Amino acid sequence: MKLRIEISDVSEEEVVIRCRERTDITDKLVAAFSDISRLDTTLALTSEEKEHFVPVRQILFFESAGKKVAAHTQEKCYFTDKRLYELEKILGRTFVRVSKYCIVNSEKVSSISKGVTGSGEAFFDGTDKSAYISRAYYAVLKQIIYETRIKT
Fold first, then answer.
1. How far apart (Å, rounded) are the C-alpha atoms in residues 143 and 97?
2. Which CATH number characterizes residue 117's domain?
């Protein structure tokens, strides 16, 4: 496989993938480019009656908190009126549903633990915050982490 970058003065960035046939690799490349573009966006979130514009890449996880959804970063907790299913549509595939009440940013997960019952917990670097993982979603999170991270 070759990688070639051409610089031109087009008005909009464009990525072209040329291949003989569509394969798993090309599908993963398309998904990766889509995820990268979504991570450069910001979400309007509220905290203490102020509206903050938080970069998506800083968010560790979202969890339902009554009628609102809490968005956790390393330092703060913000709120949004959007529901988890709405956020799933907006965010890239690195944001993974891990329970009925929680979506985590798999790129921010530093470790996961699995309990005796099959449920688990996701931990994040630089903070003591963690997220509960339902046993139905544990394997899904693990698979996304393996697919989206470079293995050495």
1. 12
2. 2.40.50.1020
Q: Residue 138: what residue type?
A: Y
Residue 66, in any domain of the structure: yes
In the chain, the percentage of residues whose pLDDT exceeds 90 is 49
Better-scored residue on pLDDT, 102 or 31: 102
Q: What is the pLDDT of residues 84-126, one digit of tens each?
A: 999 988 888 889 999 999 999 999 999 999 988 888 999 998 8
Is 113 part of any domain? yes
Residue type for position 124: F
Residue type for 31, please? A
Alpha carbon distance 67, 80 (integer Å):
10
Question: Would you give the distance in Å from CA 27 to the centre of its chain?
Answer: 18
Which residues pair with residue 63 across a beta bridge? 70, 102
| Residue 29 burial (CB count, 10 A) | 15
Assess if residue 106 is contained within a domain. yes
